[in-house]
Design goal:
- There is one protein chain.
- The chain has two domains: about 5-225 and about 345-430, Aminopeptidase; about 225-345, 2-Layer Sandwich (Alpha-Beta Plaits).
- Helix content is about 40%, strand content about 25%.
- The protein has helices spanning about 5-15, 30-40, 45-55, 60-70, 80-90, 150-165, 190-200, 250-265, 305-330, 355-365, 380-385, 415-430, and strands at about 25, 95-100, 105-110, 115-125, 135-140, 140-145, 175-180, 205-210, 215-220, 225-235, 235-240, 275-280, 290, 290-300, 335-345, 350, 370-375, 390-395, 400, 410.
- Strands 1, 2, 3, 4, 7, 8, 9, 16, 17 and 18 form a ten-stranded mixed beta sheet that branches. The protein has a four-stranded antiparallel beta sheet with strand order 5-6-20-19, with helices on one face.
- The protein is elongated.
- The model is unreliable at about 1-20 (pLDDT under 50).
- Bound molecules: zinc ion.
- Zinc ion (ZN) binds near residues 123, 151, 184 and 212.
Length: about 425
Amino acid sequence: MSIKSSLFSFIFTLCSLCLSFGQEQAEIPVQKVYKEELSEMTSKNMVRAAMAYIKETDSITLQDHIHLTEIPAPPFKEEIRAKEFLKMLNQIGVDSAWIDAEGNVLALRKGKTGKRTIALDAHLDTVFPEGTDVKVSFNKDTLFAPGIGDDTRGLAMVLTVLRAMNEMNIPTEDDILFIGTVGEEGLGDLRGVKFLFSGQGPKIDAWISIDGGDLGRVNFKGLGSYRYRVVFKGPGGHSWGAFGLANPHHALAAGINHFVHEADKYTKDGPRTSYNIGRMGGGTSVNSIPFSSWAEIDIRSHRPERLDDMEKILKAAMHKGLEEQNAIRRHGRPLTVEVEMIGNRPSGELSPDLPLIQKALATVEHFGIKPAITRGSTNSNTPISMGIPAVTIGRGGKAAWAHSLLEWWADEEGYKASQYALLLLLAEAGIGD
Ligand SMILES: [Zn+2]
C-alpha cells in the first residue's frame, strides 16, 4: 500500500466515528419571550458594536484559523496545539487560563454574579495521524487542509467571540469558560468533555459546542453509540496436522450469524437503532488454524436502553458461537472469547422548550434563516445525556470532505457563525449591565 492509501485507510477507520448532521425535525416554534429578549439584546450599542467588530476583523479570525490548522493535533497528541491555543486565549485576555489533567484548555472570563458558568467549546483534535501534511492552500475564498473545517474553524471562532467581548467591554452576569477540548474524534471517544463532566472539572451549567455544520445548525439530540472489539482465541495449528482443533474464525462467523439474526429482529421496530460489523481480521495463512479472530462492531441508537439491549444480544450471540465451536472440536483446549467495549458515546435529547435551545432557535431566526435541527455525535452528547443544557452549533461558511485529506472550508459569510456564537453566548450568560 502506498503511504497515501494507508493514510486513507487509517482515516476511514477513524471516520467510522464521523459526525452525523442528519436533519431531524422540520420546525420548532420559538416562544415570543425569547424573540423579544433577543431583539432587546441586539439593540444594545455594545452588542451591535461587537457584531460589527466580528465582521470587520474577519481577516484576524482567518489568520488564527490558518495558524491553528497548521499545528497538527492527531488523536491523543493535541498538546502542541493546546499550548498554542492557551497562549492565544491569554493574549486576548481572560481572568485565568489553564490546561487540565486530561489536556483540555480552559479560559475563564468572570461574570458579575458568577452564579452560573457557561462554556463555549470547540475541539482541538483532528482525525489525522502524525505526519499528515496540514499546510493550508487556497483558491480564492476556499481553504484546503485536513481539519480546516472540523473543527479548527470552531477554535478560531472561540477566540473571535472572546476578542469581540473584550474589545467592546461587554460584561456578563455568568462566568464564561472558553474551551478547547481534546479527544472528540474517533477513539478519543469524547475523553475531553467526559473528563469535564466527570466531577473533576469546574461546574458547568450550560454548554455550547461549535462543531461542524452550516450557520443555523441547532443540535440538541445526542446520537449514542457503543463500540466493541470481539476476540476469539485458541491454540491454532496446522490445517491438516492439527485438524479438529477449535477454530476461532469458525466461532466468530457463527457468533456474527447469531448476532445479525437477533439484531435484525430487535431493530426492526422501536426507536431507530443500527448495528455494523466494521472490521474483521486474524489468522496467519490459508493452511493454518488461526490462534485468534477478531471483529469490531458499532451500535448506535437514539435511546440509551436500546444500546444496552443490543450489548446483551451481541454478548449472547458471541458466546453461542463459542459454545458451538467448542462443542464440535475433536481435541485440544477450548476457545475463549472476550467482548471489550472500545467506545461509548452517550445518547439522549433535551426538550426544545429549554431556554438555551429556545435562545439558539431565536438567534438563528435573527439571521433570517431557518434552524436546522440535528441529532449528532458531538461533545454535547455528554452534557445532553446528563440533562445539562447543551447545544452544538455550526462553524458556518461552507465545507466538505471532513475527515478526509481533501477537506475544504469556504469563507462564505463565515463571520456570521461567529456573530451567532457571540449572540447565543451573551443570551445565555446574560449581559451584566
Ligand atoms: Zn468535529
